[in-house]
Specification:
The structure is a single chain. The protein is α/β, with parallel strands linked by helices. Helix content is about 30%, strand content about 20%. The chain is built from 13 helices and 14 strands. The longest helix has 17 residues. The two termini are about 15 Å apart.
Length: about 350
Amino acid sequence: MKKYKVGIIGGTGMVGQRFVTLMENHPWFQLTAIAASPRSAGKRYEDAVANRWAMKTPIPAEAKDIVVLDAAADVEKIAGMVDFVFCAVDMKKDEIRALEERYAKAECPVVSNNSAHRWTDDVPMVVPEMNPQHLEVIASQRQRLGTKRGFIAVKSNCSIQSYAPALHPLLKYGIDKVLVCTYQAISGAGKTFERWPEMVDNLIPYIGGEEEKSEQEPLKVWGKVEGGKIVKAEGPAITAQCLRVPVSDGHTAAVFVSFKGEKPSIEQIKADWAAFKGRAQELELPSAPKQFLHYFEEPDRPQAKLDRELEGGMAVSLGRLREDTQYDYKFVGLSHNTLRGAAGGAVLLAELLCAEGYMDR
């Protein structure tokens, strides 16, 4: 199979670095271009990230000598070099929206890790196991943009991956309401303990904009495509509280859920989780976990340190399912925020787009 040529826009930041590592030895994708801000442009990638490489593995050999391009000034040049780009830039939202549309209009598909376009109603926000059918809205988006190939697709917020996938196979029972508290790793803020010493032995009960995203984004994922737009679902009602905790990687969620009618049994819920497969598993996409949802019977699992790397960091770990005194049930979820939640989720989305023909040249 001929590999797709890939560009990474915002390749020097933490999520961009993760994209670079995920391109190493990828069976379908070949890293061809890296772009960043003007201060990194013109440098070899290894030099551009010299003092800020935050990954546990070394810089991939194939990336070291790539000369970094200017993300905003070199749009046409990059579009001519690659089949699509991943976008993980650190800019103001309106600037990100404009930049991503420039790439799309240059006939270069954009798979975005940014939140800027998550609520654009003809931009699909896809978790491949949950709502692959939303990709059909791309046809309407292309019409609006006046493009043949170019479009924007986004992945959801990293924190919802720790609980929304577990709720997804239970929607058939009529979920009434959900309360979730997320305990989010510092890499979600693009930080390491070396660069954020204030987080050692600390907990910050606020992450800007996160609670709103946690409550609203699942409703877009569970929405329907109608008249060329994605109309968000009416429910279930979700209330969220989000805390930053002293963990390097891995977002944990404490989840409480109630059902409208007759509630399923604990055994039934566990069986639904074990059986849950999505389009990513059907297509056997390279980054897809074989088992999407893993349930641990041990009372002290899942744990970030032990379980975040499960299936290459692309599976969701669940545990502590039990009855609750105010809701029907409560349980704990965990996902790797920079793998399943960020770059890995975007790579899986790109694989889905390739498999479904959206990246055809």
